[in-house]
Amino acid sequence: MGDYYWSMDDPADYNWRDYKLTEHDLPATDIGEQHGPLHDLDMLLAGGERQQRQRQQQDNDRFCFGGVASLLPPAPELSIDGYGPVSLPLIDAKDAHRLAQVCQQAPFGRGTDTLVDTAVRKTWQLDPEKFLFYEAGGHFGKHRDTEKEDGMFATLVVQLPSAHKGGELVIYKDGQPVAHDFGASAGSSAGRCHYAVHYADAEHEVTPVTQGYRLALVYSVCWPKDRPRDEVPAQPADSAQGEDELSAALGTLSDQEKHFMHFLSHDYTIKSVGDLGAAALKGVDRDRMGRLLAANALMPADRRYAFYITQATRQTDYVLNDDCDGWEEEAPPDVDFSHLQVLEGDGRITGRKSPAGCFGKRDVLNPDRKSLLGLWRGHRKTKCQDTGNEGPALETKYSKSGRSLLKEKPSDRQLEDFLAMLKSFYPTKAAAPGFYAIYEDLRHVLFDVIAARPFNQRLFDLYMDVHPTAKLLFESKDGWEDLLRLLNWPEAWQSARDRVRVAFAGDARLAIKALDKSLKEGADELIPVLSDALVRTEEPVKAGRYDSFFDDNMWKAAFLAPDEAVCRNIVQRQLNTPADDLWAMSTVRSLERAKRNGPEQFEARQHIVRPVVERCVTALKRRRDKRAAPMSADDYWRFDKADFCDNQEVQRFLRGPERTTRLEGLGSITAARRVVREIRDILPDDVAQDAAKFSRYLMGFDCSFTAEAGGSGKDAYVTLTKTDVWPQKREEYRQRDVELYDRNVARAVALLAEGDAASADSGSGSGSDDGNGQVQKGGGSDASATRKALEPLQEVDHRPTSASGSGSGSEAAQGGKATTKTASESGKQSRGEGDELDDGPPAKRTRTRTRRSAA
Ligand SMILES: O=C(O)CCC(=O)C(=O)O
Ligand SMILES: [Fe+2]
Question: Compositionally biased, Basic residues: which spans (predicted)?
């Protein structure tokens, strides 16, 4: 069976309405408190018993008002496209007929639908919602106006000079009608324009026009677009004394840890509260919000309340009673809060939270002394549902805006205990991933709690103890936000600074990321602390690679940080780092980028950086000279990196100084030929003779030689002869390395050259700098991106750097080896210490080696 929705005021008559629906009310005396601080607050907000009636009247007056539109001409000129000039008031039936023809039947909204139903609304309209034309029988049933535009809060109706009967605009305030007859009783409606203004959320109707024609213009009244969000009017000076009393009552409630709520008089759309915050409040709600905020602000921070606005819904389900003559509550009403918005003491919406709990009938601030149903009076929706077997059921639903004042303030002692407990439970992400997330949230909430009270060193220390790592400070969900808030809290920052430094000193990568973010977001206080932390960090060499993201950002900070000390710190750090050729090249490249991105900043600090650049030059030159040293004739035939471990005898020969050898004792010529075949399978003879064509193989094995079977029977042997294809190739690479080191030395020198805009290497190696953006995007953790950015280094870094000076081949050769060998062969590849031909990433090998030699 389908659902039928209608409003109680829907004129359509359904037989379910013949049954009696009795809603249980509670008198005002059962709501809130009849004495004590909450009651005092009621009285103070209501302005005392005596003033209450007067206030009520004022509020009624502001709730809606109207009269003669004396600023408008008595006979406004009105002309309508397709009709022509309209002479006002409209009297002639023929004119009316013509006018109706250029208009449309006005629709109305229900939920998200726009409907036309003359039983609900019967009027002609032009230019949607602006010009209305009522004939006899025209009317508009009870409704509230939708917010047609952002910031709309009221409706202005201007009735043009009209000669008609009926057609009053009746506005309901708490169910009581306030009628506007637009001058009918005063006899001025035909001769003047009249107006009426009402809040858009106020329920209103237009009674049927019984005679003549009524013409009206309808306007939406909106807050100005540039009005500050959350604006609540300052309270007039004469209420200051009331504020003290209010504040005292609030304070007492606060000490009792009392949370309470207050039903707003007006209704608000979720959107308007979301858009405007406290500034959406109207009339009496606005006054009271202003007074409560002012009183709240008078209290010390730890006693203050937080303010929320919530959409409250109260739903009751009814079933037919046993006598089938009325509806009976099936269960107690269900009260629900949703769309909660936090308005803080200063009225700022800072986030969304869930209500701490529901409120009992005693937790209601009820300055207007309303009964339960009086409080809930608002949008009531009734829905009748035929549930089949169980018969029809009726549901009523009220929704209402409420303001709640929640106090979430445990005592300092309780908090300290809690923090100590939390500390003992401090989880690691790996150990308790689920708990960690809760923990992160808790930490964030705790920050709010602690920040909301006067600074308490003990409490704050405990709070800081609970999250000691840079990861939590920086990478947790709200870590960064909390860190920034810490900066604006002088006492806290004073004592947190050292902890922050220590935390980041344990994680160079995070320190760099945080430094970068601080620069971008102007968190200036954080920059020196992070740069101090950086000096104490270890070089983040992961998997043997320099991290160009790290280096780039570090140097960027060195030049861009407002304080020169940051640059000095970084230089100090780099001077403490072991220097080798890879370090030098990475440094040079990062400095080049920094120089390119900010030539002036670079120049201003290049004198500070000079020692680092000089150190790079020294390291590069040292490496260059080692590589440039010519090889002795003896060493020329030592293929000391030869990789032929499937046959140890062959490998021993290759690594030794002899040019040729014989493998003997093979037993038969067949066996000798088999050995040759096996060798040629691995390294074909023609490969050993043709470097250009087969360098991929050569590089894989780091040798070149031929094999030939000879002799017969027991004397059969295999002759191995080294060819100079490999050593020549090796020589070529040595030469290239020297050139590369030379180029890098030149780049380093060019860095400090006067008036040179970092273009020294724009033609050669810097092409790969384009990979920079990619590296940053990958957060420096993407190995392939990092490798890409390191490409110019790899021209060198996989090559031998041992004192012996023998080479192992190019990057291409490494790749070739990997694809040529089987997995098991690769497995056998790893060598002892000192051998540079392990399977690790190229940079690692060299890195390991240089580290050792540096030590
Ligand atoms: O005709 C009027 O006075 C008011 C019409 C109205 O309530 C509306 O257009 O929403
Ligand atoms: Fe309306």
Answer: 844-855
Q: What is the distance between the alpha carbons of residues 396 and 23, in angstroms, rounded to a whole number?
A: 10
Mutate which of 105, 155, 162, 217 for ligand 1? The one with the most ligand atoms within 8 Å of its CB, which is: 155
Whose CA is closest to 100, among 118, 114, 113, 115? 118
**Quick one: pLDDT at residue 387?**
52
Q: Which residue type sits at 429?
A: K
Q: How far is CA 412 from CA 225, 258, 543, in A?
A: 43, 17, 47
Residue 553 one-letter amino acid: N
What spacing in Å lies between the alpha carbon of 79 and ligand 2's midpoint? 24
Helix (H, G, I), strand (E, B), or coil: what is residue 262? strand
458 CA from centroid of ligand 2 (Å): 59
User: Which protein residues touch ligand 1 with a CB less than 6 Å away?
Assistant: 132, 140, 145, 157, 169, 204, 206, 216, 218
Q: Which of 378, 170, 182, 408 is nearest to 263 (CA)?
A: 378
Contact 395, 328 (CB under 8 A): no
Residue 248's identity, in one-letter code, is A
Torsion of CA 583, 585, 591, 593, to 10 degrees: -130
Q: How confident is the model at residue 743 (pLDDT cuts 50, 70, 90)?
A: very high
What pLDDT, on a 0 to 100 scale, did the predictor assign at position 642? 83
Nearest atom in ligand 1 to the alpha carbon of residue 169 is: 3
Closest CA relative to residue 88, chosen from 71, 72, 67: 72
Four-residue CA torsion sign, 583, 588, 589, 594: positive
107 CA → ligand 1 middle, Å: 12
Ligand 1 atom closest to Cα of 157?
Answer: 3
How far apart CA 770 and CA 790 sit, in angstroms, is: 11
Dihedral-angle region of residue 222 (phi above 0 means left; psi in -120 to 50 means alpha; beta otherwise):
beta
Q: Two tokens at 128?
A: 């949607």
Pairing of the two strands 176-180 and 124-126: unpaired
pLDDT at 227: 75
Rounded average pLDDT over 402-426: 66
- Probe residue for ligand 1, chosen from 152, 218, 221 as the CB with the greatest number of ligand atoms within 8 Å: 218
Digit-coded pLDDT (tens) for 608-625: 999 999 999 999 999 999
The position carrying tokens 């990568």 is: 509
Q: Decide: 687 and 698 in contact? Cβ < 8 Å.
A: yes
Q: Are 142 and 175 within 8 A, CB to CB?
A: no
Examine the pLDDT at 254 and tell me if it is beyond 60: yes
Is the pLDDT at 498 greater than 80, yes or no?
A: yes
Q: Which atom in ligand 1 lies closest to the alpha carbon of residue 216?
A: 1
State the closest ligand 1 atom to the C-alpha of 196, by its place in the atom list counted from 1.
3
d(CA 654, CA 676): 15
Q: What sign for the dihedral angle of Cα 29, 32, 33, 34?
A: negative
Residue 143, helix vs strand vs coil? strand
Amino acid at 405: L
Determine the 3-state secondary structure of 561 from DSSP: coil
Alpha helices (H) along 277-331: 283-297
Q: What is 378-407 written as a DSSP string? A: SEEEEEEEE-GGG-EEEEEEEEEEEEEEE-
Two tokens, residue 117: 């139903």
Point out the ligand nearest to the CA of residue 133: 1
The answer to whether 485 touches 463, Cβ cutoff 8 Å, is no
Residue nearest to atom 10 of ligand 1 (CA): 145
Ligand 1 centre distance from Cα of residue 100 (Å): 17
The atom of ligand 1 lying closest to the CA of 123 is 1
Distance 15 CA to ligand 2 centre (A): 28
Q: What are the C-alpha distances in Å from 801 to residues 295, 541, 580, 627, 834?
A: 76, 19, 11, 7, 11
Q: What is the pLDDT of residue 482?
A: 84
Report CA(232)–ligand 2 centroid distance (Å): 27
Local structure of 325: helix, strand or coil: coil
- Look up residue 144 and give its two tokens: 């509230």
Who has greater pLDDT, 260 or 55? 260
